[in-house]
Design a protein that fits this description.
mainly alpha
Length: about 425
Amino acid sequence: MINKILNTFTTRSIAAIVNLLIAVVLSQYLGPAGKGQQGLIITTIAFILVFSNLVGGATLVYLVPRYPYSKLIVPSYIWSLIISAISLPVLLLIRVIPSEYILHVSILSVINSFASINMTLLIGKEKIRTANLIAVLQPIIIILVLVFFFAVPEKQDVQSYIIALYLAFFISWFIGALAVIKVFGKIGLGMKENLSVVNDMFRLGFMNQLAHITQFMSFRLSYYFLDIYHGADSVGVYSNGVSIIESIWLVGKSISLVQYARIANTDDNAYAQDLSIHLLKASFLISLLAIILMVVLPVSFYTFIFGQGFEGIKIGIYALAPGVLVYNISIILGHYFSGCGKYHINTISSTIGLIIAILCYVLLIPDYDIAGAGLATSISYAATSLSILIFFLAESRKPARSFFINGKDILMYYTEARKFLFEKQNREES
């Protein structure tokens, strides 16, 4: 299990570093306004993805051990096509992004959704390494294409970023499809058989993905509020701050990905609960150390990386830091409930967070700009995490003190790390 967590953390760290390079390149060449447009584009694609994942999302991890994969992949692909088709007139109506990018966003959304379905199926089979390698390809391709295009002054625009997304999403989908066929075999196209599990996919997927929808809205609606009240420049500065501080979640999400697959493949609730508590404490401790480092870095460090006009990044990081740290609770315990098939708990908790987020965005963003967006988001993260913690305590009947990090926990982490390194050294020597 430690091997899978470390592999996930390593590949996601690489992806985070490359994504940071993407943000740096876009910021340096396009400035705050151009970076803001890019932030709105990728956020809108992500919004469409969470609706596509009503059928083809993380629920597949739970369903893969229980159904033949051909009964899962066909409905997932069809649903993604439907959602992406619906997104086109919706985006033309609400105009949250410039009109010249709307068709591209709809097409990119379906390709990205297909790629995501492939990777989720692989995770359901605990093919974590393969899924991680495919996932890290996307940002690598994007940065390579951007460097190629931005070497030419006439190509230093958002359109070059769009082309990079096309190549990255398509290649990751194609390689993922090959990997899925290798692991599962050829796809059976018996629609009557597929229809027999669509009900379960919608029922479980709706409850699970409703949590992701409300969760993602809590995360990113601030971009649209900032754009309305303060313009694309604020979105560009704030989105860079979000990218930096949320990289802390690499720890929790790397742990939870393996945790989710493990819990989905076991019927021992006591084991799943104890495992989740231990992993949460480890995630919280490591995240705290990383956040301290980010907070103490001076403003000059961030302006050196991103360029002039991005001085407000540090304000966003300060405001977001408490919420990002506390949200580790939601990441780990949320995956416990997902692994047990109790998606409604995540939905209730994230809906509470969304309601509070919208109220705070309306109250804080108009007057306080980036600081208001960060503070509102932190409050939302804290509300979601507190809600899910209450549900977990009620179900597990664990005392609250079981979540406190103590000397015994530190000793256990040290022992496990030493054991892992010792075993790895022996494998290399042999």
